[in-house]
Amino acid sequence: MSSPLASRSLRRPVRRLGRAVASPFDEFRYRAAYSETLPMLALVLLTAALTAAGVAWPLLTPLSALLIPMFLGSVMLGPRSLPWFIVITMLGVTVMVVVQPPHDVRGIARVFVTVFVAFLILIASFRRSRLGIAGPKGEAMLVDLRDRIISQGEIPPLPEEWYARSVLRSAGGTAFAGDFIVATSSRDAERLQVVLVDVSGKGVEAGTRSLQLSGAFGGLLTSLAPPDFLPAANRFLVNQDWDEGFATAIHLCLDLRTGDFELRKAGHPPAVWLHAGSGRWSVLESDGPALGLTPEVEFALVRGQLRHGDGLMLYTDGLVEDPRRDIGSGIDKLAGRGQRLFQTGFDGGERTLIDELERTDDDRALLLVHRRERRTVRPL
Q1: Whose CA is closest to 342, among 316, 321, 370?
Q2: In the chain, where are the structural domains located?
Q3: Looking at domain 153-371, does it have CATH number 3.90.1150.10?
Q4: pTM of the model
Q5: Which of 44, 71, 180, 223 is deepest in the core (most CB within 10 A)?
Q6: From the centroid of its chain, how far is CA 313?
Q7: What is the pLDDT of residues 270-299, one digit of tens each?
Q8: CA dist., res. 291 & res. 296, Å (int)
């Protein structure tokens, strides 16, 4: 029986900046991924054709040719259809063995390898039956889930004087990571809220927890007042009772009219404030334990105002932590690179910074916020 989650996620279009984008091609692709009738029919016909060729031209079509449809079936079919297809393939193997009886050790080895590969495919199919999806259907669902995480971290459209972009890099280049970003703006587009979260672990092992937390944190961020977000997120994590159920986070609430901002963090590295007037930078320290450790905690508040030309950097520890040096040295290095943006420009600066501080052994995330200089209009 196919998974309801799979069917819903495959049929639902991916959202970009709050708007559903779906084309007839997307609908066809999702329906094709969800249905296994056509792939099953095509593979059965291919198996029958190879079997018939083996009977008619035994010297040109060896028994090992049936490994091709078996491999394709393991990729294209789910756990419900794959065992039946393997049975059909074994019938073809039986017919070809009768027509091409093995006369030497090499022939016996071909039969053994073919049957052994079929057995391995069946074992893998039974293991995947816990999830209930496989092949293109499972890949489409996982890609859809990944896209939803990414879309939640997309910064909403901002006024022209503001620049805000984020970039995520996972450990080893995997598609899922323990770092994620959730962003939302008020209905009047006068307030921006962004949460940068670092889940315990890294890479795929932390990706499953980030899947759940990104959805929960997105709901909390849009429904609660800024002071209530981190306490509610902490209670949610405590209630999960995970073995490694903690995460660090930093929450930014920015007034887009005045530049006033509020920062609260939970066990997270401090934000870096780039001052345009002096060309210097400062670290915005605040107290607060990591999320998920104790039920009732308080998170200190830091206030400030981004003036025209100023910048703000929020990041995860994977960008500044190094076993060979103190984390403070990593923050100094990041801030020093950030100062260069006053000369090179802030547009695209988040990718420049994360590329210059590239590491592959931990997840990395960076959010760059910049209030552009006022444009002066010269009289004609």
Answers
A1: 370
A2: 4-128, 153-371
A3: no
A4: 0.69
A5: 180
A6: 22
A7: 999 999 988 889 999 888 899 988 888 889
A8: 10
